[in-house]
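Page header: ASSEMBLY MODEL / two components / 510 residues total.
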Amino acid sequence: MELKITLTGWFIYAALLLYLAAWVALLSGFKKTGRVLFSAGFFAALVAVACRGYAVSHFPMQSIFEVFLFMGMLVYPVSLLCRRTMLNTSETIDPLLGALLLIPAGFVFSATPQKLPPALQHWLFGPHVAVYLAGYLFMFKAGAVAIKLLILPGGNPDSTQRNQEVWNLLRLGFPLLTLGLILGAWWGKIAWGNYWNWDPKEMWALAMWLVYAGYFHVYTATRGKLIRLNSAIALLGCLIILCTLLWANFSRLFAGLHTYAY
Amino acid sequence: MIKLSLAVKKIELIIAWLFLTAIITLAALSVYAAFLGAEHTRILFSSPALQIFWLALIALLFIRLALFQPLRKEPGMLCMYLGVALILAGGLRGTESSLGRWPKLQSPSSGYLTLFAGNVQTTLTSGDMETVSGELPFGLRLESFRIEYYPDDDNGQTPTRSFASEVTILENGAAVATKTIRVNYPLYYKNYHIYQHSYDTRDHRYTVLYVKSARGLQLVYAGFILLGLGVMWWGWAEPLKTEKVRWN
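Prediction written out in full:
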């Protein structure tokens, strides 16, 4: 446990409290209050990201602390985008997702600043990581709906609509995961000489991409009728994201080219 | 006629299942490979069995496109399928393996150059820095090697900020150009990319450059562009167009 008594830290805790308050408000049916609190939380998280970026003088997306903070900030824009573009999407879970991401950033991960090694000094650093993090959020949101679907008893009238929602969320997020792979490959070619290095984190990322590609194929082949199977695949995707994001970086099992981010 | 369409349907179904099986196999293999480490994974994925798998996958992508009319009619899908096929084909073309290598091409695909100041080198070595892996069609001479450190941090450590090698390209002993190579800024000459790989961490007496042939790279990049455009078309433009997803 590491408390952050810095300006960045205070804004993280403020955002965390606002997100939790927003979640409670949305759960209790106070839609407007919930949305206002959620957006206030977002601004607090945005300030925290900016403070961090200023303190370390680079894109704050290098350490796992920075990655979680950045995702905690991105939750709101992703939620807003979904609310604006998708019919019948649930937003209640979003501030909770933001809070769940900010808790490890605020209390668990170390915020010791790290200097950028030469390989990370490239403009593709920001876009490569940012598209992945945004993509993960769509996938996590879909995962949350998939959990509900797995819990719901079969034949529930809500199921078809929620199943469609998972599909829509994954379809919006999948291009981000693909762009993450492509930008990473392009940058890998520039920095290391190969667009694909068979690095453990790359293999996890490929497995993740394939699981979601598999989801779309199964969904289309069965016309979305196997709701439980579809939901299980969407959840498996989330599990692999966690492996790629956390396990691949923390375990010595997966030491490789991506291990500067921990 | 009915019999024929039934047969086509059956083939379509078989191909769809084969395709899904390929995706599942590859996903499982990727997870397994994550535990193997990069070097073993590279060997595994360029083994003859996997080379055949890649070729079969490319064929399957085209067969699917040929059989499923709806796939061809969706520009996003079409681009994605072609993009993946191009990436796989380019990847095969770029590897050392016998299957992917055109018989005419004898130039080395990749290797390392260890250069001391003033020293001219054309011989590439493999990862162990000893086994010779090929000869470059031109020479490189190290003029100077520079390294910069970040100022002391609170822990008294000085991480590396950048390192760079100034090299001269030589053709039949004559200097052609002098360039600086540093991490993220490779040198491109005669279909080869030359990268700043590492250096003598003790005395800074030599630099290690990584040389990689650009063979197959254009195919891969074309694949990246097609896949990227295709996935954005399919995931973002198409749903907005068909109003499954709407800006409101």
